[in-house]
Amino acid sequence: MAALPNCPKCNSEYTYEDGNMFVCPECAHEWSQQVDSENNEEQQIVKDSNGNILTDGDAVTVIKDLKVKGSSSTLKQGTKVKSIRIVEGDHNIDCKIDGFGAMKLKSEFVKKI
User: Fold this and answer.
1) Which Pfam families did the record assign (predicted)?
2) Does domain 1-36 have CATH number 2.20.25.10?
3) Where exactly are the structural domains of the chain?
4) What is the pLDDT along the chain (113 residues), one digit of tens a residue?
5) Contact call for residues 12 and 24 (beta carbons, < 8 A)
6) 3-state SS, residue 88
């Protein structure tokens, strides 16, 4: 049996086939099997809060104070993050921040320097 792709909207692994469509039971997203094979070749486009396209290696600034899950400290507005890496998922920026360590951020909370 061939492995089914994860949902492109919520990245759930519990997708199933329904005729010539894939369906995600968690978020109810449906997409065709033909579109899925075409999207594998495309590269993900990630934009910052101002609409600028982000790429691997860019430097960004945090635009608002962010609570760090599992910690009592916050990531302050204006914190500079160097050498970001674009990844798939809800938190689509992977980076290392001085004083915090490895972290994932949402692109909607940063702006390109």
Assistant:
1) YjdM, Zn_Ribbon_YjdM
2) yes
3) 1-36, 58-112
4) 567 888 888 888 899 988 888 999 998 888 887 754 455 545 678 999 999 999 999 999 999 999 988 888 899 999 999 999 999 888 999 999 988 889 999 999 999 99
5) yes
6) coil
